Amino acid sequence: MPSQIVSLVVNGEPREFIAAPGMTLLAGLRESLGLTAAKRGCGQGTCGSCTVLVEGQARAACLVAVETVAGLSVSTLEGVATGGELDAVQSSFVDNFATQCGFCTAGMIMVTEALLDRDPDPSEEDVAEAISGNVCRCTGYQPIVIAILDAARRRREERASR
Amino acid sequence: MTYRLAAIDKSSFAAEREDDFTVIGSVVRRSDALGHVTGRTEFFEDVAPPGLAHLKMHRSARHHARIAGVDLTEALAVPGVLKILTHADIPNNLYTPLKLIGVGPDDEPILAVDKVRYLGEPICAVVAVTEAAALEGAARVKVTYEDLPAVFDVEEALAEGAPLVNEYHGQNHFIYEGHHCRRIRFGDVEKAFAEADHVFEWRYQSAPIEQAPVETTGCVVIPQADGRLRIHSDTQACFFTLDNTALILETPFNKLRIVGGTVGGGFGGKVDVVVEPVACVAAMMTDRPVKFVYNRYEEMQVSSPRAAERIYIKDAVMDDGRIIGRKVTLYVDSGAYARHTPYGTTKAAAHLPGPYSIPNVWADCHCVFTNRTPSSAMRGFGVTIGDFALESQMDRIARALDMDPLRLRLLNAYRDGDLKAHRKVAEGTALVEVIQKAAEMSGHELPEAYRRMSSLTREGL
Amino acid sequence: MAIHAVHVPESAEAAVALAGRGAWVMGGGTVVMPLVTSGAATATELVSLSKAGLSGIEVRDGTVRIGAAATLTAVGEHPRLAFLRPALRTIASPTIRNQATLGGNLFVAQPYGDLAVCLLALGATCEIAGPGGRRDAPVAEVLASGVTGGEVVVAVLAPLPEPGTWYYRKAMRRRLNSASIVTVASVTRTAGGVVTSSGIALGGVAPRPVRAVSAERLLLGRPLTPEVLTEAGEAARADTAPADDAYASAWYRTRVLPVHLRRAFLG
What we know:
Strand content of chain B: 15-25%
CATH topology of the largest domain in chain C: Uridine Diphospho-n-acetylenolpyruvylglucosamine Reductase, domain 3
Low-confidence stretches of chain C: none
Distance between the termini of chain C: 48 Å
Number of strands of chain B: 15
Largest sheet of chain C: 5 strands, antiparallel
Number of domains of chain B: 2
Strand order of the largest sheet of chain B: 3-5-1-12-9-10-11
Order of helices and strands of chain B: HEEHEEEHEHEHEEEHEHEHEEHEHHHH
Number of strands of chain C: 12
Low-confidence stretches of chain B: none
Number of helices of chain B: 13
Oligomer: heterotrimer
Strand order of the largest sheet of chain C: 4-5-8-6-7
Largest interface: A-B, 47 and 36 residues
Helix content of chain C: 25-40%
Mean pLDDT of chain B: 96
Shape of chain B: globular
CATH architecture of the largest domain in chain B: Alpha-Beta Complex
Number of domains of chain C: 3
Radius of gyration of chain B: 26 Å
């Protein structure tokens, strides 16, 4: 069977690319669309570094065949900052030293975005569960948990001041 | 901001302080954080040159075997396969990790020649236009083996009649300047054992530990118009990689350019120069950019872990807790090849007998070859497992003597000016103060005499 | 093998037709896609159930019918399936649960597949569509011998347990996102202080989820005391065939089975 054209709405923009059968969403984003923030760490859904949002839900992009998400909306880390301004999660990750090598960061931020969209005031336990599929080998997780709780607070304050 | 900025503890060594710190004690934003949180940091695999070819390795299915034959017919017939490299294609088919610091022999083929020495050893490199074709090609390489007996235990490997793992060495241990191991001889431990109130001997061992970086080991090599090769790599050691790759390619150093420094987790696991040389040969032979990156299985199975170690410690101890003799026999499992483990074993020896002043020390530290995955660097390699053994030993002695483990350590801790077993005079030791502070912070009470001890004096000894 | 096509049919019938041609049936892709990516898939075509109209969850007359393509997240969010939430929370991460499906969970290798253990304890029935029409089969049968070529599990029917009769415990290496060492799920009814009926399913202790029939038999007519449950847990060893893996040894699993069976009931 030949390759086909796949259409997605990526970070709010309609995008099309040619996909070989069985291409993963991760390969489509990285290799066809040049959106390389999502990373390949394991190729089997266990490290979380490829996490993106599909219709607002966190997904391991390495486990998604592009054919199954045709026409859907996909959000990646590239679309999080608006107008050059970091969002609350990004700035909290910077300020709380939640990044070290940076390889897990895209996945960590995307699961956080999904978590905070669903639950603006998560407990530490909720945070631990949300990131339980994301492996970080540098930080020991504590700075990331702190950054996510801080990001939640910043978001709530932003909303309240609006 | 919610992190804790701890005040600098100035209570010790006040006379040595100048307090002219400009960075320590202040908050400094990481220079790479902005790239990380926006996804703009460029890791090597984010480089996607047009025409990129993919390299996948056909690896040994045996722990130890003679290669009777390699049949590439089916693999070459896979659509999209461009080239299959064998050992004959590598200009200097031997890794050279320690050559530039004068340590030899080079003992590890880039691609196996007539024998495989561990499970997963690379045999042929399949280069194809797509990753899928490279995978299929690698799966279709047919290797016939004649099995050889394998050895997986350091002491069995050193025993009479053990199978020879690595012919480049000629025996199953690394030779240190004519000696069968790294040795320490200081005082007379046998006399100490005879004089001691107690002799304690215990065994410690560890398994190999994989660094498990989230980004797997790999590189993208791009041939340049001027004939140079540009290597995008996640190596932890850019210049080391450049030098070693040039030696293997038998090319001047200035024919290579490394783009690196952005490493998705290394922890020592990306210090060996393993993927770049073969990817460079593939790029030269196909005149295309080539990517060679481990999958997760390869990262766990064939990238070199922290070495397994086995350590025997025998101590001569007096009733009051003074250790007057320490004898250590330490085995480091290098796996099938040396890589950085001879150096790690030297580090293990250098770390003995731990941070204690012991007047009689004897140590034999063996770097042993077995048919396991070659081991190499990982965070304090050579030291960490030794520390686990030494400090476990200290705790067990304290328990056996019914003594406070911190007091046992304070009694034996080295002081500035002590002559160590390596004939070096200790300076800047600070162990006494660190233990005192740890005791204070954890609410562990020490008697006045122990609180008054200092690493600068011999008070209380 | 390289994949030649991924089909996303819009009906169960179309999925069955494609499965009949030898296409691999794919739920959320959490098991199939790693095989595809690593070149280890032995089929050249995949059929995804994601748009085949099989994601519905309905409750009628005390029985729930869950479409095979319902995600674990969707199962956990259904108000009438709240009793399964503690079990679902022990399976992988929220991200994976957004993808992984009920149907797929029936076909994953142990020590994964804790939802299948729950379904086994509930005495669920699979609705299977095939070239010859539809048929029903006990979940135990599907777990033991799968389905035949060209068949697709389209839904699972399970009786909802009465309040106070559902028990679940999973022992694992970490508190979250960790495979099973021992999983225990049970619907057990008591009256007058003694057990009147009991269905117990175990995960992590055999090549597939198994019923602990020896333990079920032993509990009948007896109270749920630590002593009785320990005895039942020891009896349950007869129903298991544990293996060593990266999470635990067979020896350890056998050793701790009675402990976790007891804790499933008494905490």
